[in-house]
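---------- Forwarded message ----------

FYI, see the Metalloregulator ArsR/SmtB family transcription factor record below. Original note from H. follows.
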Amino acid sequence: MRNQNKPINLFEIIAETNRRNIIDLLRTRPRSVGELVESSQLSQPGVSKHLRILREAGLVMISKDSQKHIYHLRAEPLVEIDNWLEPYRQVWSNRLDALEQFLDEEE
């Protein structure tokens, strides 16, 4: 169980491959635990463990459909990561612009 006094670090949470795969699956549509198990290489307890961590981080929310728990992606917490990546996007954009200019001059 997660230490309740430790702040959530989204980078640590999404660094784990299985959690990223679950996020990718939920990006396309909400899914039940059973569907996530079928689409992954994980057992039901493994998927449930990762879903609990994602839920605690605010990355997924649950709704009920009869007896099934349906998991939905909540993209809002990913804004923190998007904001962190923004300066790096600018670096790559500048480099790609310079490459384009160089290639144009070579023609």
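H. also flagged this: The mean pLDDT is 90.
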